């Protein structure tokens, strides 16, 4: 996986970053979250652990969104504008995108509010008092504008880019020989897996946050 011959391909470099981000996210979203859920915690019971985990988890989510958009853009440009793709991603230029993604992650950690976990609703949210009625708590102060913008921009971008890529594959596949068609089927299978890992997973993960953001809160006792 770490062979130098693999890293010649800019697409592989970006896929490696996406995979690394996934592995790191598992620590926060699965291992630590599982421990906190077993303990039945809210923010007040483990404030430091939740603050650190929430900051890291959200920053990795933002980094993952930007990484997937960069990967999708790279694939589209390889199909229709190889020169532009080479200009943006060829060789060491791919690591410029690494730096930009790292800057996004750093910004989210340092300058934005972390998510907090409530074992009562089994989710990481910015509002630790989400179950309290509006009359008792001003919920409008518990928000993360950077995360909202990341969701609003990246998810539609992924949908557009991957839809365009699907159409591109279909267009390019017309008139190919049987041998090339067989190779194309392998490429399509790889692409389907990449789509499921990138666009579908990100959309399913972000959907509940968008839903809860606009859901009218009922007066449920904590």
From TrEMBL:
- One protein family per Pfam: 7TM_GPCR_Srt
Can the keyword ATP-binding be found in this entry's annotation?
no
Keywords, sorted A to Z: Membrane, Transmembrane, Transmembrane helix
Q: Which residues form a coiled coil?
A: none
User: What domain of life is recorded for the organism?
Assistant: Eukaryota
Q: Which residues cross the membrane?
A: 12-38, 50-74, 95-115, 149-169
Matches recorded under InterPro entries? 7TM_GPCR_serpentine_rcpt_Srt (IPR019425)
Task: Supply the name of the protein.
Answer: 7TM GPCR serpentine receptor class x (Srx) domain-containing protein
**Organism for this UniProt entry:** Steinernema carpocapsae (Entomopathogenic nematode)
**What is this organism's lineage?**
Eukaryota, Metazoa, Ecdysozoa, Nematoda, Chromadorea
């Amino acid at each position: 996986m770490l062979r130098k011959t693999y890293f010649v391909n800019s697409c592989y470099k970006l896929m490696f970053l996406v995979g690394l981000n996934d592995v790191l996210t598992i620590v926060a979203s699965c291992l630590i979250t599982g421990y906190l859920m077993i303990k039945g915690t809210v923010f007040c019971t483990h404030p430091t652990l939740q603050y650190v985990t929430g900051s890291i988890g959200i920053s990795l989510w933002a980094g993952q969104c930007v990484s997937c958009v960069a990967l999708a853009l790279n694939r589209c440009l390889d199909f229709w504008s190889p020169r532009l793709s080479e200009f943006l991603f060829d060789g060491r230029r791919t690591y410029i995108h690494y730096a930009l993604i790292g800057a996004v992650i750093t910004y989210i950690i340092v300058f934005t509010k972390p998510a907090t976990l409530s074992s009562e609703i089994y989710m990481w949210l910015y509002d630790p008092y989400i179950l309290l009625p509006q009359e008792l708590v001003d919920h409008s102060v518990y928000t993360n504008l950077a995360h909202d913008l990341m969701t609003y921009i990246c998810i539609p971008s992924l949908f557009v880019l991957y839809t365009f890529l699907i159409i591109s594959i279909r267009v390019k596949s017309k008139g190919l020989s049987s041998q090339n068609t067989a190779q194309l089927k392998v490429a399509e299978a790889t692409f389907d897996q990449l789509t499921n890992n990138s666009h579908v997973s990100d959309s399913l993960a972000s959907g509940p946050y968008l839903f809860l953001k606009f859901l009218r809160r009922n007066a449920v006792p904590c």
